[in-house]
Amino acid sequence: MMQLPLSEIRKTKIRQGSTYAIMTRYDAFLANMAKDPSKIMQDSVSLYLTNYSPRTMVMNPEFLKLVDFEKVKKVYTERFRNAADYTFFIVGNISEDTVRPMVEKYIGSIQGYPGKENWIDRKVMPPKGNFKGCVNPLTVPKHRFYKP
After folding, report:
1. What's phi and psi for 82, nearest 5 deg?
2. Does the pLDDT at position 7 exceed 80?
3. What is the pLDDT of residues 31-56, one digit of tens each?
4. Cα separation, 12 vs 145, whole angstroms
5. Are strands 131-134 and 143-146 parallel, antiparallel or unpaired?
6. Residues 7, 1 contacting (CB under 8 angstroms)
7. Distance CA 75, CA 81 (A)
8. What is the pTM of this model?
9. Longest dimension (CA), the chain
């Protein structure tokens, strides 16, 4: 149970072959989803709720073409490299006396580095007011009313 976070942080391995296999599966999945009314609706609502921000990425074959293995590897390594500012939540039916030695052994031994992640608020917000729209081209038109 406690070995998983330790192994994820210590042994970060991203294999190009595995990444390619996942991308191939996603490509086939998204090709099938392109005409699914629920997917079209979901994408339309996502774009609306972020006010059509250029930061809103719709998962489609064009998006997959933008994925670069080296960048994925770099971002993944940066996120899992430093556990210094992680917050761990232990949830379950286990007593503190039982879990404390495991936390000290596994989570306590994770090496941290100085520094903290900084996030930037990109101000991606929903538009103000009410929105009424019809999403086309759907085989059966669907309407949704959103009031943010």
Report:
1. -120, 110
2. no
3. 888 878 888 888 888 998 899 999 99
4. 44
5. antiparallel
6. no
7. 10
8. 0.61
9. 59
* Residue 146: φ, ψ to 5°: -120, 135
pLDDT digits (tens, 9 = 90+) for 89-146: 888 898 999 999 988 888 888 777 777 778 899 999 988 888 777 666 666 665 666 5
- Residues constituting the chain: 148
Kind and range of the H or E run holding 55: none
- R_g of the chain, CA atoms, integer Å: 21
Q: Which residues contact 137 (CB under 8 A, 6 or more apart)?
A: none
Amino acid found at 127? P
Helices (H) and strands (E) in the chain, counts: 6, 2
Closest by CA position to 26, among listed 63, 69, 54: 63
